[in-house]
Amino acid sequence: MKMKSINSAIALSAIILFAAVGCKKQAETVAPATDNSALYESQAVSIIDKADVTYNDVTITGGDETTSFMVDNEGLNEEYMMVETDMDNAGYKRADNHFFSCMKNLDLKDTQVHMLRRALRAYEECKAADIKAHREAYAKLSLRIENSRKELVAQLANGKITKAQFAEGIAKLRKDFETSLRYIKASYAKTLRACYDKFLHATKEILTERQWKAFVECYR
Predict the structure, then answer these.
(1) How far apart are the first and last CA of the chain?
(2) If the chain, 220 residues long, is cut into consecutive pieces of 10 residues, what is the mean pLDDT of each piece?
(3) Do residues 153 and 170 touch, judged by C-beta distance below 8 A?
(4) Helix 163-206 × helix 37-56 angle, to 10°
(5) Is the dihedral of CA 139, 145, 151, 153 positive or negative?
(6) Which residues lie across from 70 on neighbouring strands?
């Protein structure tokens, strides 16, 4: 009887040891769960940085005897101009807005579309004051530069200045326009970036992992 008990104990110990080794091997073969949070964050920051660079860029066209100095969209970029009404048929379904053209390909559920609309509303409210101030400042700058350009054109037409002097004056106006517009942009860039940051992170939370990956591939 005593020998039988000893044999049973040995057998039980062997089973426990075998099970422990098996569990250890199984744990070693199962890959740990991947934490994509850092990757998602870097992707969002990359998109935000791109919008910030685009906003702060200044590309001036025109500025001669017949055309005014101009910049597209009053110096505002597409990312910062998005508003809630872009979710309506005239906006969400059009293809000329890169953000929404990428969203259309994600097969969003109705609940996601609703959440995205709310995120856009919050984004619009966040930046409304700065967008308004930017446009007002741009309008004043544009008017001042245009009045100066017209004065140069009048002086050239009346023979008060030469072609060379006109060209020099136009060059100074172009530099003035660029410097002043950069100052305007610098005044609002921080807030606009912060609002876009909040909106993009809200968008990331609305999308699934698969949708976010597809959106990044399309949008960046």
Answers:
(1) 77
(2) 44 43 42 56 88 96 96 96 83 72 90 95 98 98 98 97 97 98 98 97 95 92
(3) no
(4) 160
(5) negative
(6) 61
Q: What is the CA radius of gyration of the chain?
A: 31
Q: Are 83 and 126 in contact (CB under 8 A)?
A: no
What does DSSP assign to residue 73?
G
Domain boundaries, the chain: 1-30, 35-219
Return the residue matching tokens 């969203």: 103
Report the alpha-carbon distance of residue 47 to residue 218 in Å, rounded: 11
The pLDDT of residue 30: 38
In Å, what is the CA distance from 96 to each residue of 15, 78, 91, 158?
68, 10, 9, 45
